[in-house]
Amino acid sequence: MARAGGITNAVNVGIAVQADWENREFISHISLNVRRLFDFLVQFEATTKSKLASLNEKLDVLDRRLEQLEVQVANASANPSLFAT
Amino acid sequence: MAVPIEEAIAALSTFSLEDDQPEVQGPGVWVSSQRSATQSPIEYTDVAAYRLSLSEDTKALNHLNALTHDGKEMASVLYTYRSCVKALPQLPDSMKQSQADLYLETYQVLDLEMSRLREIQRWQASASSKLAADMQRFSRPERRINGPTISHLWSMLKLLDVLVQLDHLKNAKASIPNDFSWYKRTFTQVSGQWQDTDSMREELDDLQIFLSTRWAILLNLHVEMFRVNNVEDILQALIVFAVESLELDFSLLFPERHTLLRLLPVLVVLVTSSDKDSESLYKRVKVNRLINIFKNDAVIPAFPDLHLSPAAILKELSTYFPKFSSQTRLLTLPAPHELPSREAQEYQRHYLIVNHIGAIRAEHDDFTIRYASAMNQLLLLKSTDGSDVDWSKEVKGNMYDMIVEGFQLLSRWTTRVWEQCAWKFSRPCKDASPSFSDYEKVVRYNYSAEERRALVELMSYIKSVGSMMQRCDTLVADALWETIHAEVQDFVQNTLATMLRTTFRKKKDLSRILSDMRTLSADWMANTSKSESELQSSQHGGEESKANIFYPRAVAPTAAQVHCLQFLIYEVVSGGNLRRPGGLFGNSGSEIPVNDLKQLETFFYKLGFFLHILDYSVTVATLTDLGFLWFREFYLESSRVIQFPIECSLPWMLVECVLESPKSGLLESVLMPFDIYNDSAQQALVLLKQRFLYDEIEAEVDHCFDIFVSKLCETIFTYYKSWAASELLDPSFLFASDDAEKYAVQPMRFNMLLKMTRVKLLGRMINLRSLITERMNKVFRENIEFLFDRFECQDLCAIVELDKLLGVLRHSHELISRDLSVDSFSLMLNEMQENISLVSFSSRLASQIWSEMQGDFLPNFILCNTTQRFIRSSKAVPVQKPSIPSAKASFYCGTQDLTSAHQSFARLHSGFFGLPHMFSIVRILGSRSLPWLIRALLDHISNKITSLEPMITGLQESLPKSIGLLPFDGGVTGCVRLVKEHLNWETKSELKSEVLHGIKEIGSVLYWMGLLDIVMRETDTMSFMQTAPWLGFLPGADGQILTSPDGGDSPVVSLFKSTAAAMLSYPGCPSPTSFQIMSKQAEAADLLYKANLNTGSVLEYALAFTSAALDKYCSKWSAAPKTGFIDITISKDFYRIYSGLQIGYLEESAQVASNSHERLGDSVAWGACTIIYLLGQQFHFELFDFSYQILNIAEVEAASSVQTHKNSNFAVQGWETLLEGMKKARRLNNHVFSMLKARCPLEEKTACAIKQSGAPLHRIKFDNTVSAFETLPQKGS
């Protein structure tokens, strides 16, 4: 019965495997760093979004405040006689 | 030269990416750079490079994988199949002639669906034959090709699983044969005109048989397999492999485990139904082991809403496979619904998460702490350069262990969810009413509140650990690779070397396999401790005993390497013989010593797990995927509805459960159930590839999220309301209260949720915080509106309650503003008061108070001078009011208890109007609307006086020309008669009472002003105390205000001035102008506050106004004596009229006990005395008033009767009550006069005015005309 195994050209395979390890070290290094870049971008987006959100919130508050002031002023300037001394 | 990658990437980490978002959701973003290792990466093309003669095996393996891939798509088609027939329209009678068209259309629609089914039929036939052929090929005893490898075994199992799943789906979906029969009918209708339909018909018959036969696929597979009689070997090998993997349960994640569990019964049936000796299986695997496995997992999750049970499968298959029916031991296993209750209880205990949640919690806490510490160590390691090799290895190894543990934990937890789900499906709720649908029985009413909470908790553990691991994917990746690399190298370079030297030295073929293992995976160059030559020698089994030390290389073995290594180990232990008795590693008859076998086994299973770790993010995604909790295709079909209402939807039930029990501390997990939707949407799009499912999920999510936000806001609002209300409760009340706990509010943590600006929902980012803010702004306004509405439905006394409730609202606004930027309260209040405009001085509340005073308070309330209160007269006509609107407790004080506590306080003030009410009015109206109200009231006085004038003239006319002093000799009785003769007003009783009422209203207004004056004094004093030190005022010895002696600027101005000067002289000052501005502002504030100090008195102002209003009538009401002397008989003066009115009503009240007094109260005296005083008739009145005179006479009479000692009190007998009333009136009048003298000295008619800004002018000389009071804002402007 034939046993399994028996790499036909063990030495060549061994050399190829060794070369493969080294090549793959380079590849995984690159791919990992690309992924890190990606991660950074994702995180950057998230942070930016939440900063924008807080800015937006402040603007909202200011907006409403301004609206109120505008109404007040518009109302007052519609009756200039009130301010005539 | 470009910057090295390392440095560039490291530079990125200097960016501040802090973001105060709490992590309360599951992982969201997946970035995966490689095809996953567990799913045949690049089709194992690189296996050939290792020259292991595995090309046949690899080819077959890829073939099977491709089939599995197709089969999964078929399964998703079947699972999501929805009946088309149900949607077919019915033709009305009028359109019967177009029946043929309808058939054609129907045919075309159904044909598309049926072609898919046909495709499935064809596919399964070819897949079965290919699987059978594959098995036969690789299980020949006289094997000529290498294989099957372990991955190959897995591929067989997976394809088999898909085939069996298809069978299950086909059996369970009733709508498919249904649709098919309709299709056939339309076909016969349509195909009438077609030619050559025989082949189509045949095909249809074929398909019909396939669809209507249960287990058609499995039976077909069985036939295909046993064409040649040697597949038992490989089937047995598969069973052995499955049983051993299940028993070891180390390298299996739950999807694989469930696959094995699902297949095992089918495999057993297939093996035992062969023609050969069916008992041979039990020689290799004892039947007890099988029964144990089947018993341990009584229900196996297969599809989201369909579970399987080994016992049921075995039973059902026994009718189709007659040979198997002799296996009585396996057939007597009870199916889950047949379990005796005691056993069912045991299973229940095992399956319900709620029974394990304590242990899970502990596991979670322990794991997260250790994980975080491992993570910190790793970061520390990365930040120190030139670190110790051993330490680095230890830290990385530790991280690796944590990741492995994490995967296993996640797998275990998710299994629990799956299994509980399957268990619940298998045991529907028993005490359900028959009206419930099936789905409601298994889901909606099948989870108790506690179970739901446990599920949410477990889910949030799964999701949070998942996102924790997901987040550090790229951080740990190289550490993991390095550790795996080291493990592999350690095994092939050290362990194998030892084995080669010792055990396998003599065994040529085995040692060849071992050295092949080394060849294909050893990384010699990473080995620094040896030179090249030594390497060579060690490769050939050198004698060094020292273990190798490796240079760490952050590269993991490829999937092909793992594949080959596993294959070789399998070859070593099994000898390439499928028929070998015993298990994989467990046989004692092997030539390999136990110790080595153990090492090989451990490494074998470790290799299996490496793949999961290399697939890091895919593994995390699979393990945390809870999307199955949403799917319900089987139940939709059996219930014949398009979709269930969201109350039946498990994710929504969980959200609701968290919101409804906010005290259970799960609030921060409330967003977790939405991850189920995220997952299920992902599954619908990526796995099932069905757009309509996604649409349904999206619709449900939209709906749910809306409800969720509104419910959440309600909870938040209620919580803050009750918090504020409980803080505002009187502490002494709380101290005295027996059950003060019920007023305490348990703190809840909303601030995490309030920070969420990015809620991930179906790929969208939702700003939850802004949604909440929006709703809060709205609900605060609604609440104010409600309080105003409520006040408008009550009388003026409710102002205290309004003030109180507004106070609670204001305080809760203050509390919520700490976490959320809501609109400012005063803005909202102004908006609801409708006085945003700069030039509007009235407001909704002010006009309400005014109309309330005019319509109800002044006519119907009477004054009690002693208590300083107005109360509603019992004789008053009740005023019609709209009914009080009711609202939920959150619009009052949050909880019911707090509301009743506050209301009982408010009730104390609901029966009268006094100082507390005045305080509330001043607080609510403020300096803006108060002048408007004062003006309105003063106008009311002047109007009243004007309307009184003709009536008084009327009364004057009926008086005699002159009235002298009352004669003493008539005694009391005579005098009273005489007075009556003078006052012949019998015909004018209405006029009389109207005049009295008019005077009463004037008096009420004046007294009201008096109260207002007191309150204003108090508030002014308060603000004076606060501002005085800043303005530099000192109280003088006589109570006068002095300015501070040093003169010049006030302290606040000089403080800011000196600061500004100091800052300006300092050269580094960033913005000197702002300090200048500040100092200018200080001056402005100084001016404003100083002006405010000289407050005048409202009462004095009102008196001056009244006096001015009276001036017009002076001539009519007080005739100047022509002679220049006081004319004592004059009868037309006002005091005479009042004198008459007073004695009249005193008499009336003496006759009918306190009748008219109850209608008029003490304010008549206030009104009349003020008019008399202002007309300068005080002394006349005191001298000539009828009642005073009568009192004098009564005194004299009493004195004389005491002197004569006879018939004492005879003369005054019968008049006691009247006299008593007169005395009271005199006392009251004296009181009023003395007050008036103090507040409004007549010698100089001065008044103070109030400027439009609210600042009064103090004691200026004043022309007494009404027009002088135009400085107050007009009512109605």
TrEMBL record, chain A:
GO MF annotations, alphabetized: identical protein binding; protein-containing complex binding
Keyword Endoplasmic reticulum recorded: no
Entry GO terms, CC: cytoskeleton; SCAR complex
Location of this chain's protein in the cell: Cytoplasm, Cytoskeleton
Main location: cytoplasm
Keywords in alphabetical order: Coiled coil, Cytoplasm, Cytoskeleton
Coiled coil: 52-79
GO biological process: actin filament organization; cell motility; regulation of actin polymerization or depolymerization
Family of the protein in this entry: Belongs to the BRK1 family.
Protein name: Protein BRICK 1
TrEMBL record, chain B:
Coiled-coil ranges per UniProt: none
GO CC terms in record: cytoplasm
GO biological-process terms attached to the record: regulation of actin filament polymerization
Pfam family for this entry, one: CYRIA-B_Rac1-bd
Residue span(s) of domain CYRIA/CYRIB Rac1 binding: 156-219
Signal peptide: none
InterPro entries: CYRIA/CYRIB_Rac1-bd, Cytoplasmic_FMR1-int
GO MF terms held by the record: small GTPase binding
Superkingdom, taxonomy of origin: Eukaryota
Record-given protein name: CYRIA/CYRIB Rac1 binding domain-containing protein
